[in-house]
């Protein structure tokens, strides 16, 4: 190693620390860029699955290896501030037809049944239903249907697959709720 040529023990130690810190920084950047990222849940749009203040791990590699799937909880940039993310659940994919009737969503004429959204939806948004999801795009909803800004709103719309930052896989905070996210 190049530090062995340094005779002064203090300078050698400093150089070794500099190399170690540089390798650690590069490893951190690689992991953050290509493998995992942390996201903070701001608001209750995904309640009860994710609560305000939860911290989740986003698997950034997931969509490089496979396509997004119905039911995945995904993060994508907030249009007005791309450094922040929306976190929502995919309910429909390319070619699916989504419509809303009597408080419930339907995908390809089948009522959307989920364990977390027991109440009929009151908040409609400004998208005109039915919506046919375009190629390479996905229709997303918050689990708290009456308190979510999602694909029902033109400002969000359907989400292009390349815009998905990653799939939420693990909740790290709060410690009392640490575990897998479904």
Description:
- This protein has 182 residues and is an alpha+beta fold.
- It folds into two domains: 1-35; 41-180, Umud Fragment, subunit A (Ribbon), CATH 2.10.109.
- It has helices spanning 9-35, 62-65, and strands at residues 36-40, 55-59, 73-78, 81-92, 97-101, 104-107, 110-111, 131-132, 137-141, 159-160, 166-173, 179-180.
- The strands form two sheets. Strands 1, 2, 3, 4, 9, 10, 11 and 12 form an eight-stranded antiparallel beta sheet that branches. A four-stranded antiparallel beta sheet has the order 7-6-5-8, with no helix packed on it.
- The longest helix is centred in the N-terminal third of the chain and has 27 residues, at 9-35.
- The model has no long low-confidence stretch (mean pLDDT 81).
Q: Can you describe this structure in just a few lines?
A:
With 182 residues, this protein is α+β, with helices and mostly antiparallel strands. The chain is built from two helices and twelve strands, in the order H-E-E-H-E-E-E-E-E-E-E-E-E-E.
């Amino acid at each position: 190693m190049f530090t062995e040529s340094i005779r002064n023990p203090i300078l050698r130690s400093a150089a070794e620390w500099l190399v170690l810190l540089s390798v650690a920084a590069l490893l951190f950047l690689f992991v953050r860029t290509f493998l995992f990222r942390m996201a903070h849940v701001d608001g209750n749009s995904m309640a009860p699955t994710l609560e305000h203040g939860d911290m989740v791990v986003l698997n950034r590699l997931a969509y490089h290896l496979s396509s997004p799937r119905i039911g995945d909880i995904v993060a994508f940039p907030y249009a007005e501030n791309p450094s922040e993310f929306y976190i929502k659940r995919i309910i429909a994919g390319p070619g699916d037809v989504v419509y809303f009737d009597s408080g419930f969503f339907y995908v390809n004429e089948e009522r959307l049944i989920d364990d977390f959204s027991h109440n009929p939806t009151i908040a409609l948004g400004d998208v005109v239903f039915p919506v046919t999801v375009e190629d390479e795009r996905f229709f997303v909803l918050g689990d708290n249907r009456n308190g979510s800004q999602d694909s029902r709103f033109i400002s969000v719309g359907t989400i292009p697959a390349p815009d998905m930052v990653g799939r939420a896989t693990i909740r790290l905070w709060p410690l009392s709720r640490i575990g897998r996210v479904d």
